[in-house]
Design brief:
This protein is an all-beta fold and 477 residues long. It folds into three domains: 298 residues, Neuraminidase (6 Propeller); 71 residues, Sandwich (Immunoglobulin-like); 88 residues, Immunoglobulin-like (Sandwich). The chain is 1% helix and 45% strand. It is elongated. The N terminus is likely disordered.
């Protein structure tokens, strides 16, 4: 199955939080090892279900009996761990099928109906499988989950006796099945493929190409309900030997895959990543603690529920001589000096200043008959300040794939000793700093949040303010 099938090298610690110096990219996830891991045996490939997690393990049948193949390999089967609250699980329940005792079961996935299961197992089941030298290939099988029984098992039409097919993941609408295979014609040792359910049948496998696949091994695809594809690769340039990547399809084109950050990925093998809707929580497998274990992750990307909308500062004013109407029988000229070197003539004038400041506004009144000039007939100080708010300086529209600069230089919060500027870009990415660069890959409208925090004395509750602004990302021409 699993590790052997695709030459995959299948974490403890209580909580993995990357410590970052101020100004650097903060950790995006916290990671916790789950309590149902057995310690001695392997637990892999979690799948999220309504009341908990179903996973694969090569643990014993009982306290004394192992499950092994004819060639001595340990066999994997399905187990259900019921969740009791945010962190606790009940005892695990084994899910059995006609294949449980002699063949590998898993990795797998469950359709949106909660019953249809697609899983990996060996293709051949006859007497030849008892020969230790026989090379059995993996395929995908489909069954129905009824309590702790998997019934009605049937093979996927593209299984083969000459190459492996496995690691299935079904889309939320049931119309696309993703899987891994080392079938001929791929780009590497194993690639990600998908089939579409058209006219009540599965279409021929499609290789999505170099945006996802490489000359190395790509396995464990998992398509989220939001259409984001996660998978595992042992390509070079990652954190460890096996790393988790993600991508999505926009207007029929797969975007170049990006690697998931630490601490989800590590110097060890990290694979089989699944996420809940919104990608804020989920599970994955890692051997960062020697054996394969299942970990949960939680997003540390802060997004405030209540965030003020950015208000644009206005420095434009209307100046009016109230007595002009009373003296309309006498011709006067009204000359305004705005205190910034600019002037205007009229009983009612408008003027825009370049920015905040203190300005002395003066009005000279000239009698056009006598030529008498009343200098500084009116004089007053005008104090202009920005709106008290964090401020996002950014364009309203940018092109996908092009970097855009955002800064908080115009933040105006008198009396605040701001210690951190935290940016949530609305696409599951964050940065910290007063000035940041951001590249959006997918067109759309994103709501940016800027959260500023004040440094306070020990024991005092820190003040925070949040401001948001929409930015529209358009396709490149």
């Amino acid at each position: 199955m699993v590790r052997r099938t695709f030459n995959i090298l299948l974490i403890t610690g209580l909580l993995f939080l990357a410590e970052r110096a101020e100004g650097q990219q903060p950790a995006m996830y916290s990671v916790t090892k789950l309590p149902f891991n057995s310690g001695y045996y392997n637990e892999i490939s979690p799948v999220i279900v309504k009341d908990g997690v179903i996973f694969c393990s090569d643990r014993r049948y009982s306290g004394i009996k192992d499950r092994t193949a004819f060639d001595g390999r340990r066999l994997y089967n399905f187990y259900f761990a019921e969740k009791t609250d945010t962190s606790e699980f009940k005892s695990e329940l084994e899910i059995k099928s006609e294949r449980s005792t002699r063949f590998n079961n898993g990795p797998f996935c469950i359709a949106a109906d909660g019953k249809t299961v697609y899983f990996t197992s060996e293709v051949e089941t006859g007497r030849q499988t008892r020969n230790r030298k026989f090379r059995n290939y993996s395929g995908i099988f489909i069954g129905e989950l009824n309590g702790d029984q998997l019934t009605g098992v049937r093979p996927f039409k593209y299984n083969s006796t000459t190459y492996d097919v496995g690691h299935p993941s079904i889309s939320s609408d049931g119309k696309t099945l993703y899987f891994a295979s080392n079938m001929p014609g791929g780009q590497g040792k194993s690639d990600i493929y998908y089939c579409e359910f058209i006219n009540n049948d599965w279409s021929a496998p499609v290789n999505p190409g170099p945006a996802i696949n490489s000359s190395s091994s790509e396995n464990y695809p998992a398509i989220s309900s939001g259409g984001k594809l996660f998978f595992t690769s042992d390509r070079s340039g990652g954190f460890g030997r096996m790393d988790i990547y993600s991508t999505y399809r926009y207007e029929g084109k797969w975007e170049k895959a990006s690697i998931m950050p630490e601490p989800v990925n590590s110097a060890s093998d990290d694979f089989a990543f699944v996420a809940e809707a919104g990608h804020q929580r989920g599970y994955f497998t890692s051997n960062r603690d020697r054996g394969d274990d299942i970990f949960s992750f939680s997003s540390l990307i802060r997004r405030m529920d209540v965030c003020d909308t950015l208000q644009e500062n206005s420095y434009c004013y209307r100046f009016t001589e109230e007595n002009a109407a009373k003296l309309d029988t006498t011709p006067f000229r009204y000359e305004w000096k705005f205190g910034d070197g600019q002037k205007a003539i009229g009983a009612v004038v408008e003027h825009c200043y370049s920015g905040p400041g203190s300005y002395l506004v003066q009005l000279d009144v000239i009698n056009l008959i006598t030529k008498e000039v009343l200098y500084n007939e009116k004089s007053d100080s005008l104090i202009i300040t920005d709106i008290e708010q964090p401020y996002i300086t950014a364009p309203d529209q940018v092109q996908a794939g092009k970097a855009v600069n955002l800064n908080a230089d115009r933040t105006y919060l008198p009396g605040w000793n701001i210690s951190r500027y935290y940016w949530n870009f609305g696409d599951e990415t964050i940065q910290v700093g007063k000035e940041v660069d951001k590249t959006y890959l997918k067109p759309g409208t994103y709501n940016i949040q800027l959260i500023v925090s004040e440094e306070t004395s020990p024991g005092m509750e820190p003040r925070e303010r949040c401001i948001c602004k929409n930015i529209k990302v358009i396709s490149q021409p």
